[in-house]
Structure formats: structure tokens, C-alpha cells
Design brief:
347 residues; alpha+beta; CbiD-like; Rossmann fold; 3 domains; five-stranded mixed beta sheet
């Protein structure tokens, strides 16, 4: 699954091409296996402080893109794997079996044992069309049951980044075999069953899984990675704790002189271990649920993002900040929109 990368000499630094974080020399030195160092250099692995490298997986969006690409390319001949350009900018080789316009790709979860969609199979069927590029979201892909802040009822639950990745893969494959127009039907045969194990039913997405992927990669997470994240937190004098890829990107722009650490859902652990100047910056969801776990109770909203679009959110945010200053007196909280606009700053 990984692209060819020359191993870094032992003792030199490695920069993660996905996050931009340069691993400390001592972390690299602790990793004695050249293949593991190469995996970390490629971005398909994450180096931990103890020298262990954990594999990143592929998102549902990446897997869907691979199935669609393989279906088109298989109109020319059998396919075993395809090159996919991810939203984060990396180009990776993804296994996908295709023949005669039909293809299948299984989701690789990497070293993330809690991924309920691990191994889920995407199927795609391609045929020449009269005009344009047409993507049909079939069975097993969820649809929104009601209007949300970013989607209309009945639309397939495919995120913008994932959709762009899929459409780019379709366009590239069609060009490669000389097709000017193509129709691709994408399905997840067991999607409805797997969706029951996800948040989708509570979010009003029925009756299948969501196709997602901000970077195109699934982050591994275990005790080793948590400890490495906390070590970065402890070393930082000017720290920004963030929750996801968009938060990471915008935090670096807003606070270029700070060390920005992606903590995911481990906000509490990071805040407790932090010292000096500390900022919590990210999208409303995880940030506000950390500060007030019951924030959605009685609102009728399924997500914090939906709540953020309601009248009076500014006033609600002010109350959250006031209580946060009491509970976490040294913590500054900055809440961002998906477009990077500052929705609120506890100052």
C-alpha cells in the first residue's frame, strides 16, 4: 500500500508530510528499522516517541475513489491496484480488484483497532456515458433524512473532500483510457448493517455509512501514540491544542509562533499535561463537548455544528467561555468555523 521512499539515515530527522511535524532526533534514533522509518517519511506511518511506527489507514473516501478508478480502468483490462491522490496531497497505491467495468476495494484501517468500517467493501460499476462524469451513490451509502447546515435532505452522505477525491479519481482514470464521458455507480453492500454501529442513525443519516476523509488517511491511535502526543504537549512552552485536520491547518495560520498539537478526542489528557501558555483551538464539536458534555441536551440539535447555526449561539458561547475560565483559568479557547472564521475567543 505504500509508495516507494528512501529510508532516512538513522539519527536524522523526519518530517511527517501529512501534519508537517518534524519528529525529534531521539524519536528517529529509537526507530531501528529502516522500513519503519521509510513508512514514517512517506506519511503512511506515524512515528511514536519510543520508536514504534503505527500505520495510517485509508478513509472511506479513499477506498471509494479506488473502487471507482479501478472500475473505469478495468474497461481496458484487469486491475489489481490504483494510484489515488489524497486530499492531503499525497499520492498512494490502493489495492482494488477490477475487471470488465466492475471493481471492489476493501477499506484498510491501518493500526486503528476501533475503526468500525475496517474491511468494509466498496463496489463500483463503470460504463461509457454520452456526456460528462456521472457518479451515482447506490445502496449502502447513507443519505440525509433532513436538512442540515451543509446538506439537503436526500443527499448522499459524502463529504466535500471525499467527493472531490472520488471525482478526481474518476476523471483521471477516464482520461487515462481515453473516455470523455463516464457513469460510475458506487455501492457498499454491507453499508446498512455497518451503519448501525456508527453515529449515523443519531445524526439523521439513513440507511448506510458516510463516505468521509479530510486528509484521505485514517489516523492510528493507541497508548503509544497518546503518550507521544502528550510528550509533545509537555515539551511546548507556547502550545495550541487542536482536535482535527482543519483545526490543525487554521491553528498554524492563526498562531504561527506556537507548537500546534493534534489531540483528537484526547483533549482532557492534553490540557491536564500542558504548561505555560495554552490555547484550545478547533471546530465547535469536540471543543464545546469537552467544555460542556451535555451542551446538546434540550436543544433538538443532533450536532454542535447544527447548534452553531441557531440564533443565540453567540450568547451560548459566551456562557460556555465564562464557565471555562473558572474551570480552566489558564486556558484560552478559540472556536472556528469550517471556513476558518473565528466564531468565538475566550481571550
Amino acid at each position: 500500500m505504500q509508495k516507494s521512499t528512501r529510508p532516512d539515515p538513522e539519527g536524522t530527522t523526519i518530517t511527517d508530510p501529512v501534519t508537517g511535524f518534524t519528529y525529534p532526533v531521539e524519536w528517529v534514533s529509537a526507530c531501528k528499522d529502516p522500513e519503519s522509518r521509510a513508512l514514517a517519511s512517506s506519511g503512511l506511518g506515524v512515528l511514536t516517541s519510543g520508536g514504534r511506527v503505527l500505520r495510517r489507514g485509508f478513509t472511506t473516501g479513499t477506498t471509494a475513489a479506488a473502487a471507482c478508478s479501478a472500475a473505469i480502468l478495468s474497461l481496458r483490462g484487469p486491475v489489481r491496484a490504483v494510484q489515488i491522490r489524497l486530499p492531503c496531497g499525497l499520492t498512494v497505491l490502493v489495492p482494488a480488484e477490477g475487471v470488465g467495468g466492475h471493481a471492489e476495494a476493501d477499506k484498510f484501517a491501518g493500526d486503528y483497532p476501533g475503526d468500525v468500517t475496517a474491511g468494509v467493501r466498496f463496489t463500483a460499476d463503470a460504463r461509457p456515458a454520452d456526456e460528462g462524469i456521472i457518479l451515482i451513490a447506490g445502496t449502502g451509502i447513507g443519505r440525509f433524512a433532513r436538512d442540515t447546515a451543509r446538506n439537503r435532505a436526500g443527499e448522499p452522505a459524502i463529504s466535500r473532500a471525499a467527493l472531490q477525491c472520488i471525482m478526481d479519481a474518476i476523471d483521471s482514470a477516464a482520461r487515462e483510457i481515453g473516455l470523455s464521458a463516464v457513469e460510475v455507480s458506487l455501492s457498499v453492500p454491507k453499508g446498512e448493517i455497518i451503519a448501525a454501529q456508527t453515529m449515523n442513525p443519531r445524526l439523521g443519516i439513513l440507511p448506510g455509512i458516510s463516505v468521509l476523509g479530510t486528509t484521505g488517511l485514517v489516523e492510528p491511535w493507541d497508548d503509544h501514540l497518546t503518550e507521544s502526543m502528550l510528550e509533545r504537549v509537555e515539551r511546548a512552552d507556547r502550545l495550541v491544542i487542536t482536535t482535527g485536520r482543519l483545526g490543525l491547518r487554521y491553528s498554524r495560520l492563526l498562531f504561527p509562533e506556537h507548537e500546534v498539537v493534534l489531540a483528537g478526542a484526547k483533549i482532557r489528557e492534553a490540557v491536564e499535561r500542558a504548561r505555560g501558555e495554552v490555547i484550545l483551538c478547533g471546530l465547535p464539536g469536540l471543543v464545546l463537548k469537552f467544555l460542556e458534555p451535555k451542551i446538546l441536551e434540550g436543544t433538538g440539535c443532533a450536532t454542535v455544528e447544527e447548534l452553531s447555526g441557531r440564533p443565540g449561539f453567540d450568547r451560548l458561547l459566551g456562557g460556555v467561555f465564562k464557565r471555562a475560565r473558572i474551570q480552566y483559568p489558564g486556558l484560552r479557547v478559540v472556536v472556528l468555523s469550517r471556513q476558518g472564521d473565528v466564531l468565538g475567543d475566550s481571550g
